[in-house]
Amino acid sequence: MLYDPTEHRIRSFVTRAGRLSTGQERGLKEFGPQFLVDYKKEALDYEKTFGRKAPVVLEIGFGMGGTTAHIAKVMPEKDFIGVEVHTPGVGSLLKMIGEEGITNLRVIQHDAVEVLRDMIPAASLAGVHIYFPDPWHKARHNKRRLIQAPFVKTLCEHIAPGGYIHLATDWEDYAVQMLEVLSAESALQNTADGYAPQPAYRPLTKFENRGLKLGHGVWDLVFTKK
C-alpha cells in the first residue's frame, strides 16, 4: 500500500516565499526549459528524460543544490533527480547545472511525496538521498518529520533490490528516530553497525563544517533494499 498523500496529511515542509537573486532568476529562465521536469500524474520515462539508460538516484529536499550538483559530477555514471519545493533553491541548482555543464541531473519543483506516488515507477531507483531534512525539533512538531515508517515503506517500494537509502542529519534525536524507523523496515538492511561512516561522495557543507568544528555531530545512515 502506497503512502497516500492527501490534502489533509501532515506535511514535512512549509512553503516559504523566498526572494530570488539575479542568478537564481537567470537559472530558472535560461536552464529551466532544459533541466526542469514538470510534475505530472504519469510515470517518468528515465531514458527519454536523460537521453540514456543509467541507474537513477532521487534526492529529496536538496536545499540550495550545492551537494546535489557535486554528487552528480563525481558520479557521472548515474542519473540524478532532485526534488525541492522552494524556488530559490531550484533556481540556484539550475544555475549550477547550466554553468557547470552537468548533464546527468534533472529537477522537479514539487512535493516529493506526490512525485514518488505519481512519477517514480515501482522498484526503479538505484538510490535515495535525503540530507538534513527539517528536524522539526520541538517535540510537538516531531510528527511533521519526513522520516516516518509509512514514508520509508513507500521509498522501499520505489527502490530496486540492491538499491539504497542514504540519510544524514545533524540533530541527534532525529538520527535516533531515523535509525529506529529504518531498522524496523523489513525490506531494508543496515550497511553498518548503527550509523555509517560518511560516504566519500557526500561533501561537507559550509554549515556542516562549521558545526563539526564547534563539536556538533553529524550522523549518516546507509541502508540497502533486500
From TrEMBL:
Name the EC number(s). 2.1.1.33
Task: Return the SUPFAM superfamilies for the record.
Answer: S-adenosyl-L-methionine-dependent methyltransferases
Q: Which UniProt keywords apply?
A: Methyltransferase, S-adenosyl-L-methionine, Transferase, tRNA processing
Cellular component, GO annotation: tRNA methyltransferase complex
Residues annotated as binding substrate are K138, D170, T205, K206, F207, E208
Which parts of this chain are annotated as the region Interaction with RNA?
140-145
Q: InterPro entries per the record?
A: SAM-dependent_MTases_sf, tRNA_(Gua-N-7)_MeTrfase_Trmb, tRNA_methyltr_TrmB_bact
Record: residues binding S-adenosyl-L-methionine? E59, E84, D111, D134
Q: Which domain of life is it from?
A: Bacteria
This entry's Gene Ontology molecular function terms read: tRNA (guanine(46)-N7)-methyltransferase activity
- What metabolic or biological pathway is this protein involved in? tRNA modification; N(7)-methylguanine-tRNA biosynthesis
| Reaction(s) the record says it catalyses | guanosine(46) in tRNA + S-adenosyl-L-methionine = N(7)-methylguanosine(46) in tRNA + S-adenosyl-L-homocysteine
PROSITE patterns for this protein: SAM_MT_TRMB (PS51625)
Q: Which Gene3D superfamilies match?
A: Vaccinia Virus protein VP39
Q: What does this chain do?
A: Catalyzes the formation of N(7)-methylguanine at position 46 (m7G46) in tRNA.
Belongs to which family? Belongs to the class I-like SAM-binding methyltransferase superfamily. TrmB family.
Q: Which HAMAP family match?
A: tRNA_methyltr_TrmB
Protein name per UniProt: tRNA (guanine-N(7)-)-methyltransferase
* Organism expressing this protein natively: Massilia eburnea
- Give the taxonomic lineage as stored in the record: Bacteria, Pseudomonadati, Pseudomonadota, Betaproteobacteria, Burkholderiales
